[in-house]
């Protein structure tokens, strides 16, 4: 099937579904695959998982005799013409049915043909394992959108501050500049505070008027809109930051953050999101969608108190580990030591960023990058980039190793 062919299983063709239609039915060729599928899917079906062990031809025969379930899983392994096998399903699958496929073809082009051109929701090559099936197929089987869909595309990292003024924008801007400017990964710096435009000022680019337009009409978000709205800071670093009028009322559509996140992650390798101290609305949506949170605090009692509240926040759906904790603007004369802060938080400090004093303020005002200069600040940002997989070199085996390798003091 060539690109541009109409989908066989087109979600737009959904007809009213009978309430008696089974939620899910699976057809597999061998007992081993059936065992793995039962282990992964059966707990979600207390009334019983409908799973048949039959050849592909038997699957077609069975489906031709019944009203198609809402979701079906078909095994095409062993078929000489697997794409032709999928085409044969068109005659026996009712409109609106979601089709999942497993087989023995492991090529990327085959996967794309099924999921992009033929309307198959997901394809997994054998051999399967329980974790893979749970992650990729279970959400579809129970009638939900799979969380795993969010893993496709670039990585989104949210930088949060334990209170205002702890240096989130400075670290976010320099981290984004390092990834986009030096490691040459396509990167976008997203400022989720729609009224201040701090990231635009720090990156020395104008604020965008397109960000508000995108969030007001998320169904119109596409790569072209993003290209118009984002401003280039370097060849591979763009900035998306708004500076809306403080007294102007406008409508933020629910789901706008998710739509924008999906579009950005399809366009960029890394989305570095600057989250305000009080995340509401759009900022809260982006925070929940990020794969990783970075929590920034200073060595003060107030900052430590706010950091504890951030640590206690529920993790987002894609956040599989605790926030990376960054101690910013640190010097040895401060009363709270890194060891004490780590003990209070119950979380190791991954990176310590030295106090640069007026130098950091001047760089922020002039839109200059501190990470381009050799010294301990750059070392800290490089360590952070490695921790999120955005810079060459192995990440530290333990967060403590990252702390130990950073010298504290003026660069």
Automatic annotation (TrEMBL):
It comes from Acidiphilium acidophilum (Thiobacillus acidophilus). The lineage of its organism: Bacteria, Pseudomonadati, Pseudomonadota, Alphaproteobacteria, Acetobacterales. InterPro entries: P-loop_NTPase (IPR027417), ParA/MinD_ATPase (IPR050625). GO terms for molecular function: ATP binding; ATP hydrolysis activity. Keywords: ATP-binding, Nucleotide-binding. This is Pilus assembly protein CpaE. PANTHER family: SEPTUM SITE-DETERMINING PROTEIN MIND HOMOLOG, CHLOROPLASTIC (PTHR43384:SF6), SEPTUM SITE-DETERMINING PROTEIN MIND HOMOLOG, CHLOROPLASTIC-RELATED (PTHR43384). GO terms for biological process: negative regulation of cell division. The keyword Cytoplasm does not apply. GO terms for cellular component: cytoplasmic side of plasma membrane; cytosol.
